[in-house]
Amino acid sequence: RCPSLRLSGEIVTGILQVIGGVIMLFRVYLFYNKDRRVLSLLVAVAVICVGIWCWTLLLHSSSTSQQFSAA
User: Which of 32, 39, 65, 68 is the most exposed place for a label (fewest CB within 10 A)?
Assistant: First the structure.
């Protein structure tokens, strides 16, 4: 019903997922005896995931603004 409320909920959910992901990233990094190759791979995957998340937020916000401007 309220697109700004839905968007803020998605942002909060994404932030919480990033926090959990960072904690799990460091656990895996420590599990592999602080190997920098593992850390670089995990950081690369995390950056790609955050980029996709931002892209979907921008895509979602532009599609909702177009829906309400057409109405």
Answer: 68
